[in-house]
């Protein structure tokens, strides 16, 4: 098992994404050089400007991969790198056709692995961003999931409802199929390759967005838009919303797990759930009301219904991540404060 310490060169696919840009930032801050892929030159301009202002201009290279589903799409991008962080995959609930989710997820994932075998002899570790959507299944009773679990219920939703299935089911199926394809590819080739695979599975990802946001709050990424709507928006704070539960992780902890995955020997060949904990939406309101000074004075935090309780329906066993990565997860208050400071800076 071989680790990849700085100043190694790391490829980050989909580098302009919500999680990916934090992966790029943490890599650069730790002394790595980064090659990031984007789907157009325009999307790369923001990255060049953003990281240039932070003093990393000479450590960041941007390359355009217009269509990650094409055969050989990553052939040039992988050349000369020591590790790969594959984050590129759509999470856009407005998509309708299952293929719009699955094709980029599966073909992009298998494609980057194929390119690594053919054109990246120096690669020692490949990290793939999967999702707890590939792990969980909405249960009738509270359940604690682990890395041994796989989502099967989302495929059942699609088999039953087709294009009318829940968009989250389509997304979860895409992540499940992509991750399974990655593990099958790895098992088939691991006797003849020089790199090891790690898969990171986060649940809902919240936290400060540093990616390019071209409009107002309506243009936030899919996981952060409900966060804004609940905490800052004017929508009703109903008992149903406030008692809804799920699990979450801060985007910076998610990104850090990707860096630790190339630095820790024991992470090689592992599927790792990275989760900051379970939540009720009411707990986010409670945490927001502890922050002083509050970053959005014109939008004081709603109280919700303090004291409301409900079971945590979906939880995750993080023992493996605790042992292999040792992350100290950010608290809800830290995540809210830092996220709202970004919103305030944008005048929202």
From TrEMBL:
UniProt superkingdom? Eukaryota
Please name the InterPro entries in this protein's record: Epimerase_deHydtase (IPR001509), NAD(P)-bd_dom_sf (IPR036291), NAD(P)_dehydrat-like (IPR050425)
| Gene Ontology MF annotations | oxidoreductase activity, acting on the CH-OH group of donors, NAD or NADP as acceptor
Residues of the NAD-dependent epimerase/dehydratase domain:
10-275
**CDD domains on file:** AR_SDR_e
**Pfam families assigned:** Epimerase
- UniProt entry keywords in alphabetical sequence: Oxidoreductase
Annotated PANTHER family: NAD DEPENDENT EPIMERASE/DEHYDRATASE, STEROL-4-ALPHA-CARBOXYLATE 3-DEHYDROGENASE, DECARBOXYLATING
Stated name of the protein: NAD-dependent epimerase/dehydratase domain-containing protein
Organism for this UniProt entry: Agaricus bisporus var. burnettii
């Amino acid at each position: 098992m071989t680790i990849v310490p700085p100043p190694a060169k790391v490829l980050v696919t989909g580098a302009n994404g919500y999680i990916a840009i934090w992966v790029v930032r943490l890599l650069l801050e730790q002394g790595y050089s980064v090659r990031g892929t984007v789907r157009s030159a325009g999307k790369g301009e923001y990255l060049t400007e953003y990281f240039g202002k932070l003093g990393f201009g000479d450590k960041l290279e941007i390359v355009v991969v217009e269509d990650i589903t094409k055969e050989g799409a990553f052939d040039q991008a992988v050349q000369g790198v020591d590790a790969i962080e594959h984050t590129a995959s759509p999470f856009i609930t407005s998509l309708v056709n299952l293929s719009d989710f699955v094709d980029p997820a599966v073909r992009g994932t298998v494609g980057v692995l194929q390119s690594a075998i053919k054109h990246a002899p120096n690669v020692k570790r490949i990290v793939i961003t999967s999702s707890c959507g590939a792990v969980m299944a909405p249960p009738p009773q509270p359940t604690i999931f682990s890395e041994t679990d796989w989502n099967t219920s989302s495929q059942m939703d699609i088999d039953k409802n087709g294009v009318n299935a829940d968009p989250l089911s389509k997304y979860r199926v895409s992540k499940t199929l992509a991750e399974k394809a990655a593990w099958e590819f790895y098992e088939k080739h691991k006797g003849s390759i020089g790199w090891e695979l790690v898969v990171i599975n986060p649940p809902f990802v919240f936290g400060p967005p540093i990616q390019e946001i071209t409009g107002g709050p309506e243009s936030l990424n899919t996981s952060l838009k409900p966060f804004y709507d609940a905490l800052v928006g004017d929508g009703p704070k109903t008992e149903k919303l406030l008692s809804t539960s799920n699990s979450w992780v801060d985007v910076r902890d998610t990104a850090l797990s990707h860096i630790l995955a190339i630095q820790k020997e024991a992470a090689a060949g592992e599927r790792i759930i990275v989760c900051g904990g379970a939540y009720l939406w009411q707990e986010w309101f409670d945490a927001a009301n502890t922050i002083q000074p509050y970053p959005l004075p014109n939008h004081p935090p709603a109280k919700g219904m303090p004291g409301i309780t409900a079971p945590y329906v979906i939880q995750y066993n993080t023992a493996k991540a605790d042992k292999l990565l040792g992350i100290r997860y950010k608290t809800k208050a830290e995540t809210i404060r830092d996220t709202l400071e970004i919103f305030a800076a944008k005048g929202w």
